[in-house]
Amino acid sequence: MEAEAAEALAQGLKAIGAGLAMLGAIGAGLGIGVLVYGAVQGIARNPDASGNIQTNMILGIAFAEAIAIYALVVALIILFVV
User: Fold this and answer.
1) Maximum CA pair distance of the chain?
2) Are 74 and 68 spatial neighbours (Cβ–Cβ below 8 Å)?
3) Alpha-carbon distance 38 to 56, whole Å?
4) CA–CA separation, 14 vs 20, rounded Å?
5) Nearest to 79 by CA among 23, 22, 5, 1
6) Can you tell me the distance from the alpha carbon of 80 to that of 82, in angstroms, rounded to the nearest whole number?
7) Contact 28, 68 (CB under 8 A)
8) φ, ψ of residue 23 in degrees (nearest 5)
9) CATH number assigned to the domain with residue range 15-80, chosen from the 4 options 3.20.20.70, 3.50.50.60, 1.20.20.10, 3.40.640.10
10) Which of 1, 3, 59, 70 is deepest in the core (most CB within 10 A)?
């Protein structure tokens, strides 16, 4: 019975670790929200610069989303490899 309890504890700790690893996605989501908010404000103030602002916004979103993808990969590694 102790082996089963140890296995259940290990599975529970893996789930907690994967959940903690996904906390990086919260920061990425907040960063994307702030970035889009600033871009919308900038376009509203200066519509002539919308092309340049939109290009930089999309690039920033891609970089912020990469952090969330890294967090997802770490969580999946914790769940299925470790």
Assistant:
1) 70
2) no
3) 11
4) 10
5) 22
6) 6
7) yes
8) -65, -25
9) 1.20.20.10
10) 70
Q: Which helix (H) or strand (E) holds 27?
A: helix 24-45
Q: How far is the C-alpha of 39 from the C-alpha of 47, rounded, in Å? A: 11
> pLDDT tens across 19-40, in order?
999 998 898 999 999 999 999 9
Confidence of residue 82 (pLDDT cuts 50, 70, 90): confident
Residue-range domain boundaries for the chain: 15-80
Written as six digits, the tokens of 75 are: 């969580």
Predicted TM-score (pTM) of the model is 0.77
Contact 68, 25 (CB under 8 A): yes
The answer to whether 42 touches 49, Cβ cutoff 8 Å, is: yes
Coil vs helix vs strand at 46: coil
